[in-house]
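In response to reviewer comment 3 from the previous cycle, which asked for concrete evidence that the modeling workflow produces usable outputs, we include below a single protein chain processed end to end. The sequence was submitted unchanged, and the resulting structure tokens are shown without manual editing.
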Amino acid sequence: MTKSIDFYFDFISPYSYIAHKQIIKLNKRNNFNYKPILLGGLHNLGGITAPAFNERKMKNMKNDCLLISAKNNIPFKWNEKFPINSLYLMRGFLFIDENKKEKFIDCCFDAYWKDNIDILNEDNIKKILSKCEIDQKKFNEGIKEIRIKNKLKDLTSFAFNNDVFGAPTFVVNNKLFWGQDRLDYALEEYNS
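The workflow returned the following structure tokens.
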């Protein structure tokens, strides 16, 4: 079995977006196993109040994301619709064909954190799906399937039961690295 780094992410997380862009810049995408979770569900399981619901944390988070993205030459714009419920898009990632997942991730992250687009707006979802060559009708039906619903719940519960409490989180060699600023540590562990 090939060793990989599990990358727990949610489209709602600006730090997941930044980590994703850093992974691409490092040309390390193949080293990562993208694991979608529902960040809101994870927070609920852990009794965590998200920064989005704390005015001081939110202000700092906005400034922090702008600072980190500028330092790393990552296009970033704080989304005016933050926070959103990413449930359908996270389910969508689990439903779509494997060969479309990379493009879907790129399109969703870019739309939300680079282009300031409301990714819950039906017309905008239609554009994202079209760009990824994903049939909208099948997508809308697929995200309602019980197996897809359960898969996202199971991934989120599995993450929680294995001490993941936020996104992004990297897990390699059973060691957990939380936050986009721990990407280098995860890569060092991967290469050890």
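The first helix runs from residue 14 to 25. We consider this sufficient to address the reviewer's concern, and the full set will be provided in the supplementary archive.
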